[in-house]
Structures are given as structure tokens and as C-alpha cells.
Inverse folding.
């Protein structure tokens, strides 16, 4: 298996490829890609995403890229609904388990997919990079979010940076926590 550095060195070319951007070679599959990495490399991945956001327009002029940090998306959504301060107060008073239960419905993928759609302005972008998966856990489950984004993304490619392992069948957050099976994404680079 390639080292993380070797894999990261392939990401820019892959993201700017006609194949990825046009969905060629996918058959009737959706253009969801996962770049998995060891969770202890989170800071390196954040730096690399910043590098990609700087380099993508240079390598492929005219490309319209949107980066979404899921943790920031969830915080903004809770704040917009006037739930953030209430949620923090409830966590202090009643504990984390109570908070998770209370936020389960407002943060379900069916509720967040329209928020994602609005924030992303999908028709006016060509490529979507998603990060913050580890930070938003356990408030949001990756497979639930991805499943609810299928109809929202239409034919636009989405690349999720995932702190854990993806074997093409299932997601293992932090390499340990098994999420429900998710079969509808491709590994960005092996």
C-alpha cells in the first residue's frame, strides 16, 4: 500500500481529471469519492486541503470548487435554528448522552441534506470537498449523510476526506468504529 504522502501527491491530478469531473467510467454510479487516511494525520490532511484549494484553480482554470467542513456546517445550522446555546446548556446539565438524543432528529441526514444543498450552491460549482468528519462525530454519521446527498448532488463529484478506513464496502471511522455499510463511493486514490 502506498504511503500517505504518495497518495496525497496523486490527489490534485485525480481531482482535475476529466474522468472525475465528468463522471466518466462510473456507469450509472454517483460521483462520490472517499479519501481515507489514518486519523492521527488529521492536521496534515487539513493542510493538504488548503493546498488543494489554492492549487485547483491554477491546475484547472475555471474550476469552481466548494469546500464544506461538516463540523462547521452543523454548528452554523444549530446556531441558525437557535439550538446551539440550548444544546450546550443541556449538555452541561444533563450530559452528552442526552444531548446526542436531543440532536438526533435535527441533525439527521434527511434534515442536513437540504442545508448542505443550500450552503453549497450546487449548480454553480463543479467539485465538492468535504472534511470535518471526525470532528462532527458522533453528532452526524457519515453513511447517513452520504445516503441523503445522492439526490442533492445530481451529477456533481463529491470527495469526502475520511479519518479512518474505507474498503469499498464499509466505513471505519478512526479505523475502529464501524459505520453501516456504504457501497456507493469509490476510493479517490489507492
Amino acid at each position: 500500500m502506498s504511503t500517505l504522502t504518495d497518495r496525497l501527491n496523486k490527489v490534485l491530478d485525480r481531482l482535475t481529471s476529466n474522468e472525475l469531473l465528468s463522471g466518466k467510467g462510473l456507469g450509472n454510479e454517483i460521483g462520490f469519492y472517499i479519501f481515507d487516511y489514518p486519523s492521527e494525520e488529521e492536521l496534515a490532511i487539513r493542510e493538504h486541503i488548503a493546498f488543494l484549494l489554492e492549487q485547483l484553480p491554477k491546475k484547472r482554470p475555471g474550476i469552481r470548487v466548494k469546500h464544506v467542513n461538516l463540523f462547521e456546517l452543523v454548528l452554523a445550522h444549530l446556531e441558525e435554528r437557535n439550538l446551539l446555546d440550548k444544546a450546550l446548556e443541556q449538555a452541561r446539565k444533563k450530559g452528552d448522552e442526552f444531548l446526542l438524543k436531543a440532536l438526533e432528529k435535527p441533525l439527521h441526514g434527511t434534515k442536513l441534506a437540504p442545508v448542505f444543498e443550500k450552503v453549497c450552491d450546487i449548480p454553480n460549482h463543479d467539485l465538492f470537498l468535504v472534511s470535518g468528519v471526525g470532528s462532527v462525530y458522533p453528532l452526524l454519521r457519515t453513511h447517513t449523510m452520504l445516503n441523503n446527498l445522492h439526490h442533492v448532488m445530481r451529477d456533481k463529484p463529491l470527495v469526502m476526506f475520511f479519518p479512518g478506513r474505507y474498503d469499498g464496502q464499509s466505513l471505519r471511522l478512526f479505523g475502529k468504529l464501524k459505520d453501516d455499510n456504504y457501497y456507493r463511493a469509490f476510493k479517490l486514490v489507492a
In short: The radius of gyration is 17 Å. The mean pLDDT is 87. The beta strands are 32-37, 65-69, 127-131, 158-166, 170-173, 177-181, 186-187. Residues 42-59 form the longest helix (18 residues).
